[in-house]
Amino acid sequence: MTQNDGQRFDRLPPTPDEREVEGRASREEVVDWWDERFGVPSETFEDVTFWEKGSGKIWAFSANLPSPVEVEGLGITVLRTRQEHWKPTTTGVKRFGQEATENVIDLGPGEAAAFAAGHDQQIGRWDGDWGYLIAAHELAGEREPIGVGLYLHGELRSRIPKGYQEELAVLD
Predict the structure, then answer these.
(1) Is residue 170 part of a domain?
(2) Which residue of 105, 136, 140, 149 is surrounded by the most CB atoms within 10 Å?
(3) Is 148 exposed, middle or buried (CB count within 10 Å of its CB: 0-12, 13-18, 19+)?
């Protein structure tokens, strides 16, 4: 097997059977994960190529380039693999989370503001899966993803990176 080179982007193999780097996710696995975890239809990713740079940092790019590519950045980070539980990124959730139909927790105005500011909070009404969720709120009549939360034991933990944290105006 080929070794992972953390200094360049390598396109994910189409399927696990075509994997050349041990531990590298395949395109099929990534698309299936978004579908199984969040109900994001596979068609959402039709024009998206997936790349790994580093160890398990998956990037999405809306163009087709030859692989490997030696650049500093390529598209957006969407997922962290190579750990026990795959974790979506805030950027990935903001880009693809509007298509999600599962494991989305809808937050009221005060809850959304606290979450966006990076605060953890007790939310006992969730009766879905524990683990990583998409936290969302209503904006102009539409569900808008805020970011990634980790739900455990009645607590929604904000996983909004410091650089993305913001103060939202609370309008009732």
Answers:
(1) no
(2) 149
(3) buried
Q: Which residues, listed in sequence order, are joined to residue 76 by a DSSP beta bridge?
A: 60
Per-residue pLDDT tens digits for 107-164: 999 999 999 999 999 999 999 999 999 999 998 999 999 999 999 999 999 999 988 8
CB 39 within 8 A of CB 102: yes
Same domain, 15 and 76: yes
Separation CA 79–CA 128 (nearest Å) = 21
C-beta neighbour count of 76 within 10 angstroms? 18
Give the up-direction half-sphere exposure of residue 158: CA atoms within 13 A in the CB hemisphere: 21
Cα-based angle 94, 96, 100 (whole degrees, multiple of 5): 105
Structural domains in the chain (count): 2
Which has the higher per-residue pLDDT, 84 or 145?
145
CATH code of the domain covering residue 115? 2.30.130.60
Sheet of 131-139: strands edge to edge? 104-106, 131-139, 142-152, 155-158, 121-122
The pair of three-digit structure tokens given for residue 153, joined into one six-digit string: 């034991």
